[in-house]
Amino acid sequence: MAVRGAELKAAIEGVPGLGWDGARVRVEDEEALRARGAEVLVRRVVFPADPAGRDAAYAALRAACAEVGIWSASHDGLYRARAAGAWSGATVPALNLRFLVFDSARAAFRAAHAGRVGAVVFEIARSEMGYTGQRPAEYGACVLAAALAEGHRGPVFLQGDHFQVAARRERAGEVEALRALIAEALQAGFRNIDIDASTIVDLSRPTAEEAQAENATITAMLCAEVRRLEGEGAPVSVGGEIGEVGKENSTERDLTAFMDGVEAALAEMGGVRGLSKVSVQTGTSHGGIPLPDGSIARVAVDFGVHERLSRLCREEYGMGGTVQHGASTLPEEMFDRFPASGAVEIHLATGFQNLVLDNLRPADKARVDAWVRENLAQERKADETEEQFLYKNRKRAAGPLKAWFWDLPGDERARLRDLLEARFALLFERLGVRDSEALVAEHVRP
User: Fold this and answer.
1) 96 near 347, Cβ under 8 Å?
2) Which of 15, 11, 1 has its CA nearest to residue 60?
3) Please, what are the domains in the chain?
4) Which H or E run includes 95?
5) What is the mean pLDDT of the chain?
6) By C-alpha distance, which of 347, 341, 305, 355 is closest to 326?
7) pLDDT, tens digit, for every residue of 1-14?
8) CA–CA distance, 335 with 360 (Å, rounded to integer)
């Protein structure tokens, strides 16, 4: 995003801790910037008067981060090191934050600092961008501003999650839409992109190679697009997906068919650098399955899928391993099994959403529920209870009620941050990423 000096100067006017030296943004008082300025600046990204003001505010925020030593990073080197046997016994958490993103990210950085956690990813999916009303630049701004507010130093992993092909839409148009989204995310500083064409896998085909063929072709095509646009520095980390979440569990044949197809296509393109991980299906579903009373059904995760397929990823394809989706509503005692199974990454979303929404003050929770009833009544299925209907649909209040959430009283936001921090700390412990700062410093480069 090309931003003129005059626009940058205007973007930081009145921001505590920042100044203008005639040519660039300067951090004049880091304490003031952390205490007040980071939130003032990120609000100018989230609630801009115009698109140019948003772009300038985000550019100013990234400039301030760079000056104090915060930078957006790729985890490609970290995952390649896992393939080489340089580390094990940890599964990197990737956090999808939907409500109170700035506050939630602050809580995550606070928990990370307490546990010396370097291996943690902040991500947003293509679908989430729609119902949360957040494009990559806004999400990136919330995370980077949180890093600034919490005194973070070093890399921040921003990831595009489920850059997904909508199977029912015209294929060429979907590919072009994803090309545009990749370009937008890279421009916003995202250095990790997960391509998901698993939606078009046809398991009715007679062979795994036929079932995965189009998935492999589109994944390779979009991986090559990332490489064309990634620019200088460490390679962007690119992931693929072989099993759509909520469908049949993945097999070694699925993985081999997909990866052989991807690598053959990339070789034909001139030896383009490939994937660092692959998402698989193990028995979970996004958001969990709500029961009639609103509780979440217990699911059986096949950890053997991770054990077998992660080994295959590392030994045959030089990738870090497999990725687990749809896991944040699993019981706590399951999380320490992911590092033992060899999963390199786990995506966590709905559990954080639930924590925020279930712990709102009664009147505030009623406000969210009322919005869902008033605006999404047509989504209610005949056999659903009230609890199931609200649980399935309340995530869609994130965008329309965004300003209202941002304007919750400061003490209420602080209380929710504390609850989130405790949850993040527990997950970091269970997933084996405590004390991973040194590991990240060793394998991650600008």
Assistant:
1) yes
2) 11
3) 5-68 (no CATH), 71-354+413-443 (3.20.20.70)
4) strand 92-96
5) 95
6) 347
7) 678 999 999 999 99
8) 26
